Amino acid sequence: MSGIESPTNRQIIDALQRRCAERLRPLSDEAVFTYIADAVYMERRRLQTDRDDATPEYEQRLKAAARASQQGRAAQERALLDLVGVYAAEIHNRFSEKTYSFATRVLPGALTRLLTAAQPTQLLGADFDPTSRIVVQGPVDTLKELAKTHTLVLTPTHLSNLDSPLIGYALHKVGLPPCIYGAGLNLFTNPAMSFFMSRLGAYTVDRRKKLRLYKDVLKDYSVESIGRGAHSLFFPGGTRSRAGTLETDLKKGLLGTAITAWQDGLESRRASPEILVVPCTLSFALVLEAETLIEDALAAAGKARYIISDDEFSEARTVASFARRVLNLDASTYVRFGAPLDLLGNPVDAEGHSLDPAGERIDRRAYITDRAGTVIRDAQRDRVYTDRLSRQISAAYFRDNIALPTHIAGFVAWKLLSSSHPRLDVYHRVLLGREDCWLTRAAMLRGIEQVLSGIQRLQQANRIQSALPGGAEAVLTEALARFRGYHKIPALSASGDRIQVGPKLALYYSNRLVGYGLEEELS
């Protein structure tokens, strides 16, 4: 497997303990004490509710760390390194060439059927063509060439727990190398899924662990993996987008691990130290977990639970129902790879050279090294670069977002419903009774026509993409068919010349088009 080394647990533990020791070295005694005290306190607090994790062995390690916190610095450092070993072994899953080879033959068809089958018989239909359903777009040939000489870091939008296997399929479909990626511990509870995920590049992330030490170990694991040449994937939005919006406030911690790995590679004179970031925008006609996600976004009003473990994806029966009923025969799922960026946020050419705003080549290494080529470590400077990179990734999301009929119809329905109830805020609007959620078909068609005109102008300016079946009538017809396919209370449903709106889901799907100024198109 080109680019991916598969280190043993022992190698990973040694590497992460070494990184932790280097991080501890310049700290004061008080800072080391605070570090271990935080680890003990946060984990003991968590284990009061997560009793399944309170194994005798782990509790003994925490007790040892608590005792060490009252002893000298040497004891504290040993206890911290011991915990690093525990977390490193938990996180690391070895990539398997054999399993990957098998899975790339078997899983693509199964995944495509899961995402796009319209009838139960198609799940096993021998004549079903999986390649005709999931559309992969973007500069794929350029990325394939760059992957031979650069380590790629994919940064996709995040809507569903289906995202990671979908991207894995897309990579295989177009001949790009697989990526390692962090997957929530809850996704490993199914033994069969766990077996494949752990050997297809997934490493384990336990989002219940809030201690600083664990977060540092995760970052070190990312640095180590990228530095070893493992093409990587992580969702800079953090978790699935609860409201269905494109991510603008990106988490910069993991993005920062790439620039650290780059500097490590230059210092150690690795053969291929260069790292590029590839934004990736996923567009779904429907999202399996939409009902739970928008409920969570509304209920928490910006204070969403960090992880949802009881949504639609957690039930195999629900996933199977989704597979049978959700989509029709045409393509409804899009993976669009964006133009690659360097770690400073600059675009690059087909050979990976960084470009300035005028399109001229620049030496990106000069921004982190002195005249002799020695790397200068500067955390504040690197944060500035990472901030710029995150803004460029977010801009790529908007540029590569694909407007689909469900997004457009949901957007128009929500705006018209809002205009009908101007005195209600969003939280009261989503609670409207069904009798208050009717729109005329004529009003919907007028609104869709206006939004289509806006999308056309945006697309001409390369600010959005679209995949539409035709004019307003075709968009509304397709959206109604799709919404009828799965959700218990559809975002939209038709009754004669009237359209009934399911406000929560209409809001969710409309949010995919927020941020483009399309509201101004509706008169």
Pairing-aware structural class of the strands and helices?
Answer: alpha/beta
The CATH topology of the largest domain corresponds to Glycerol-3-phosphate (1)-acyltransferase
CATH class of the largest domain, please?
Alpha Beta
Question: Which architecture of the largest domain does the CATH hierarchy give at level 2?
Answer: 3-Layer(aba) Sandwich
Strand content: 5-15%
The major β-sheet equals:
7 strands, mixed
Count of domain modules: 3
Short structural description:
With 523 residues, the chain is an alpha/beta fold.
Give a description of the structure:
With 523 residues, this protein is α/β, with parallel strands linked by helices. It folds into three domains: 9-91, no CATH class; 97-179 and 231-344 and 379-399, 3-Layer(aba) Sandwich (Glycerol-3-phosphate (1)-acyltransferase); 402-521, no CATH class. 48% of the residues lie in helices and 11% in strands. The protein contains 18 helices and 14 strands. The chain has helices at 9-24, 29-47, 56-69, 73-91, 97-116, 140-146, 163-174, 191-199, 212-227, 253-267, 290-300, 316-325, 379-400, 405-420, 426-429, 441-460, 472-485, 503-510; strands at residues 134-137, 151-156, 180-184, 202-205, 232-233, 275-284, 333-337, 354-355, 361-362, 402-403, 438-440, 465-466, 492-495, 498-501. It has a seven-stranded mixed β-sheet with strand order 1-7-6-2-5-3-4, with helices on both faces. Strands 11-14-13 form a three-stranded antiparallel β-sheet. β13 and β14 form a beta hairpin. α1 packs across α9, α9 crosses α10 and α14 packs across α17 (472-485). The longest helix has 22 residues, at 379-400. It is globular.
